[in-house]
Structure formats: C-alpha cells, structure tokens
Amino acid sequence: MTPVPTSIVVPTVGRASLSALGAALAQQTRAVDVPVVVVDDRPGGADLDLDAHGLDLRVVRSGGGGPARARNVGWRHTRSEWVSFLDDDVLPDPDWFEVLAGDLELAGAAVGSAGRVRVPLPADRRPTDWERGTAGLEHARWITADLTYRRDALSAVGGFDERFPRAFREDADLALRLGADRGTVVAGARGVTHPVRPADDWASLRQQAGNADDRLMRTLHGPDWWTRAQAPRGRIRRHAATTAAGLLALAGLATRRRALAALGAAGWLAGTAELAWARIAPGPRDAAEVRRMLLTSAAIPAAACWHALRGELAHRRAAPWRGLPDLVLLDRDGTLVHDVPYNGDPELVAPVPGARAALNALRERGVRLAVVTNQSAIGTGRLDRGQVDAVNARVEELLGPFEAFYVCPHAPGQGCSCRKPAPGLVKQACGELGVDPARCVLVGDIGSDIAAAEAAGVPAYLVPTPQTRPEEIAAAPRVAASLAEAVETILRGDG
C-alpha cells in the first residue's frame, strides 16, 4: 500500500473533544500510520493528558498565541509533502484517512484539498441562533476544520497570518494568498462531523470581535475580498446605522433637544428590533432563546462598530504577512560559543550568554537550525576533522540539536567556494535542507558572515563582538546586541 504523504496537525486548547478525535483516528478503516502533531495552545499549565491510541503522536506547545500560530508551529514540526489540519472538536468519518489518501492522489498540481464538513442539528426542534451560525461551516470555503495543504506552499507564504488572533478569517486569508479563488484548492471527498459546541448567553456578542479581522482582510486583500472568499458580507452597515441612531439619541439627551433624542431613539429601537426579529423568527422561540436574542441584539450593533473601528485603526497599514523563517543558520565561533582560536578541545567550548534559551525559542516555534562555520585550521594542519567534529558535538550537547553542521575545511587562499565570505556554505545548507534562501536567516559576528549570506540571497543579522570591526558594523543591514536580541527580532518578524 502506497504511504500517504502527509502529517496530521491538530491545534487544541485542551477541550475534552480531543480525546474523541484521537479515538476516531485510531479506529480508521485504514490505519493512520503518519505523524500526528497535537499543538497545545494553552498559555501554560500541566501537560495534556492524552491517550496516544497507538498513533505516532507528538505534542508541542505554541504558548497561547491563537489558532494561526498553533497551526504554524504544527506544520513547521513536520517534514511531509502535505500537512492535514483538523480541529480538535471534529470527528473524522471512519474512512476519512483512506479517502484522504485518494484525495491527495487526485489533487494533481493543486496546493490544497478541502474536506467536507457536516454540522448535526437537532431533529426535534428548530435550531437556535448559535446552532444556525455553526451550521454555516458546512458552506464556508477553505476552513481548516479539515483542510490539507502542501507543505512547500505553506512555507512559501509564511503559513497562517498570526495577526488573526481568533479562529476566524485566518483560514480564508491563507487560502486567498495561495490562490484558492483561482482553483488551487480543490474539493475532496472525505468528511468530518463538526458538533455544535455549548455556548453561553453572550457568545454572539463576543463574536463581534471578528469585525476587526474583517478590516485586516480588507487591507490585505482589497474591498472585494468578500466576493473572492465567497463570504457573507454580514450586517456591519446596518449595525453602523443603528449605532449612529443611538449616538444621536444620546446627543439629543445631552443637549436637551427632545426631538433629536426621540428621532435617534426611534432609529435605534427600530434597528435593534429588526435585528432581534431576524434572529428570533427562525425559531425555536422559547423563552430562553427570545431573552438571549433581545439582550444581545441590543448590544451587538455597538460592539460590532467598536471592533470594526478598532480593526481599522490597528490594521490600516498592515503589510503582507511574511512569517518566521524556515531555517536559521548560525555561525559557530563568536556567535554561539566564545571564540577560542583554532579550538580542538571540547572542554574549552563555552556558550555565549542566553544562547540555549534563544535557540530553544526558535525550536519551539518549529524553526530549523543549522551551523555554518569556517575551520581553516583543518586546511593549515593545526587540527584534523575529528577534532572539529568533537568540538561541534560538544556545541550540540550544550546548546541542543541542530539539523547539521556545515564546515569549510579550507585555509585562506585555497580557492574554495565555501569559505565565508563566499556563499558556498550557505547555499549548500539551504540546498541540502530544502529551504528557499528567501525563507532563511543567518546570524553571525563578523562581516564575512554577512557577506556570505547576502551573496546567497539570505537576510542576515550581525551580532558584534570585540573582534568585529567598526566598518563591518556600519555596513551590516541588521545589527543586534546579542544572539538573544537577534532571535527576539526574528520571532517578532521585524526583520
């Protein structure tokens, strides 16, 4: 049987439904024999108590950054051709994995394959407003409740835009950046069930925060993004009219202009009543539902306008999302460890302050790490390769794992293409690790590091030491005071 070329990524905030999802994956008609990465997006606390159900399960943390960040952390911890995203509250059909295999075989040149989402509604009564809203997922496009993307496509656009903090619009944004409206995401035959989660009386009011995300969508994709994403426009214009009427009533009261206050109040009441009836009319019209609709309908217009204004101010100059690099290349001596000239003794290896914590911060976000280092002492005969490898092993022991160590063994003047400032070592690392140089960053401590990166098309940060010449600092495009500061800047996406 041909292996399924995917990994499964499940972001979670620890909901009880995660256990049911794991059991459903374990009971598939075709055994799930691919990695399953569960991304714990809780801000902190105890580890998830999960039954692996015999799956190849790995749990990583994303630190409470929201579903977009959680998914990014998840796919960066995979190495498969495809990445299959599932939400933690869906139940895959018994043949989901078997049908997924067929969907990916039929995907051709597409960058993504979308599953079918079903939302079960009560059979004995009309659905509530909240249940009807959830049922809309059945017709939404490109939702990551069940969506598989090519990993290289995710990498090329930096994955999900983490400026979308909620499970809202981040999936449509990614799909539009990947050209889904031009047919690059195809419909698959597999299916999942998405039960309606319980909700309190004020859930619909909290949902109005999504109006800020709509403003970000407009900035990034233009005013026609609604059409491209085939998304409903919503009621923001009506909400604005209702809110304006309410403000007019308050202004009339404040200025003791009764006619103005009455006009504004009438407009506000009319708008609120229209919204409430639009939500009550479809049923079930029991006392609890009617009370909930009346209370929230009075508050929703103002809340929607507030969030839309907040989003406009926050996102009016938002730049296209770039995301984290896939790979960070690091010089060794002077950058990761204190520079001991021609060191062949592992006992002399001493990391620079904060190095391990900084590197772990990158690893936790799924960023790959590799070392690129000139070791001319091999070429001059002062050291042999075994001694250099022993020092590298000690560096890894102290600072954690790296994808690889790329070593130039040549002395100056030997005419090689790998010795920095030549770009050969950097190009070799990107090529062998399968990373586009544009999705890579290099951190070094001298001008030759920066020159090698620039010649290879890789952005670079200079972290000066006392040995760094002033002219090298002046010429560097990005300078950080320490390795930790460089990593913080990379993780913020500021460079």
From TrEMBL:
SUPFAM superfamilies: HAD-like, Nucleotide-diphospho-sugar transferases. Keywords: Carbohydrate metabolism, Cytoplasm, Hydrolase, Metal-binding. GO terms for molecular function: hydrolase activity. Residues 7-128 form the Glycosyltransferase 2-like domain. InterPro entries: Glyco_trans_2-like, HAD-like_sf, HAD-SF_hydro_IIIA, HAD_sf, Heptose_bisP_phosphatase, Histidinol-phos, Nucleotide-diphossugar_trans. It comes from the Bacteria. Gene3D superfamilies: HAD superfamily/HAD-like (3.40.50.1000), Spore Coat Polysaccharide Biosynthesis Protein SpsA, Chain A (3.90.550.10). It holds the Pfam family Glycos_transf_2. Its main location: cytoplasm. It is found in: Cytoplasm. PANTHER family: D-GLYCERO-BETA-D-MANNO-HEPTOSE-1,7-BISPHOSPHATE 7-PHOSPHATASE. Belongs to the GmhB family. This is D,D-heptose 1,7-bisphosphate phosphatase.
